[in-house]
Design a protein that fits this description.
This protein has 15 helices and 7 strands. By secondary structure, it is α/β, with parallel strands linked by helices.
Length: about 375
């Protein structure tokens, strides 16, 4: 809607710099000269990345409503919005690296049509969870490899606690940096003993290890209602350390008698080899025993990957960052994307882009 006004008294006045008929300027749009409204773009993106509904299925839904909207047109819109939000993503990355704790993980993704790569090649989506504890940030980064260079690009200049699984790329990265304090993941250690326990119907040594780990999580659950401050950390240490001492003695004894090539032996070796990192979660009240916070952010993508089968381009992936950061800050994704797409064309400075992050954006309640 562009209002047009005419002034009858101005006609023929000779003041050509102020014409008698004036029309309101075009509002700025995230896609220049695009016909899609902010609401439609937010709807399509939410359906794709939140409801994991492929564009092909959305095309079918629109067709049932009598709307001709091709998946190619929608794909072009998604890519255009993904490129437009890059300044916001840069601010998100700054926020991610500003906190005391960063969790990282990665998963596979298949992208078609990449230059000099067969369509069967596997790429990776790297994920990180960090930033201010009250305003967490979630960040995804696409990479063609799982090498340490990709981990370095994700973590960058961050300094503090780095909690990951046992993937060696993180070890190589942290080996040359005194500002990174590695923290292990008990969920991955537990998985090793769980696999060993599955190989026998009798309750044996693997079940004993699972019992020790269960006690660690029981203590976390019992303390979950307490504020995560120094008193929380002191109380957690008092309850957890006796359990860890018992488990360490048990592991040392098993390492002497269990064949290292057996499933149980591999689980024992894995746990002892990362023991110092596994118990380091006791050093900061904001740390938890595992990397589940970041793995839970990857899970919607994994579910969506089953529906999408592959990606035509990684350019739209920045939209997943906003989605997951919005959810982490209890902001409804569609309303956030609608506000972001409307306001982004008017942002000019780093401060403007920062105010568009899900943690800080002001969205009317009605």
């Amino acid at each position: 809607m562009r209002p047009k006004y005419a002034c009858k008294h101005c006609e023929g006045s000779g003041d050509e710099e102020h014409p008698a008929v004036r029309i309101a300027p075009m509002p700025k749009a995230i896609i220049e000269r695009g016909i899609a409204t902010a609401g439609l773009l937010a709807f399509i993106i939410t359906a794709k990345y939140v409801d994991v509904l492929p564009l092909a299925r959305q095309e079918q839904q629109f067709a049932r409503m009598g709307i001709e909207l091709s998946r190619q047109r929608m794909s072009d819109w998604v890519l255009a919005v993904g490129q437009a939000v890059e300044p916001v993503i840069r601010e998100l990355l700054e926020q991610l690296r500003s906190g005391p704790i960063l969790l990282a993980d990665e998963t596979t993704v298949q992208v078609l049509g990449e230059p000099d790569r067969p369509n069967t090649s596997l790429s990776y989506l790297w994920a990180a969870h960090g930033g201010e504890p009250e305003h967490p940030s979630v960040y995804f980064r696409y990479a063609q490899t799982r090498a340490a260079t990709a981990a370095d690009a994700l973590i960058g200049a961050y300094a503090g606690y780095l909690q990951t699984d046992a993937y060696e790329a993180y070890d190589r990265l942290a080996a040359g940096r005194a500002d990174l304090i590695q923290v292990g993941c008990w969920a991955h250690a537990r998985r090793k003993f769980f696999d060993a326990a599955q190989m026998t119907k009798k309750a044996g040594a693997a079940h004993a290890a699972l019992s020790f780990i269960a006690k660690l999580y029981q203590i976390e659950q019992q303390l979950s209602s307490r504020a995560r401050d120094e008193s929380f950390q002191t109380l957690r240490r008092e309850r957890v350390e006796p359990v860890l001492d018992q488990m360490k003695a048990w592991l040392d004894e098993k390492a002497l008698h269990v064949p290292p090539t057996s499933a149980l032996g591999k689980a024992v070796t894995y746990t002892l080899g990362r023991w110092d990192k596994l118990i380091r979660y006791l050093d900061h009240p904001g740390l938890t025993p595992d990397t589940n916070r970041v793995e839970n952010k990857i899970r919607p993508f994994v579910i969506g990957r089953k529906n999408w089968l592959f990606s035509g381009s990684p350019s739209g992936e920045p939209l997943q960052l906003d989605r997951e950061t919005a959810k982490a800050n209890n902001v409804e994704p569609y309303r956030y994307l609608h506000a972001l797409i409307e306001r982004l064309p008017y942002a000019q400075t780093a401060s403007d882009y920062r105010e568009l992050l899900p943690q800080f954006i002001k969205i009317p309640t009605t």
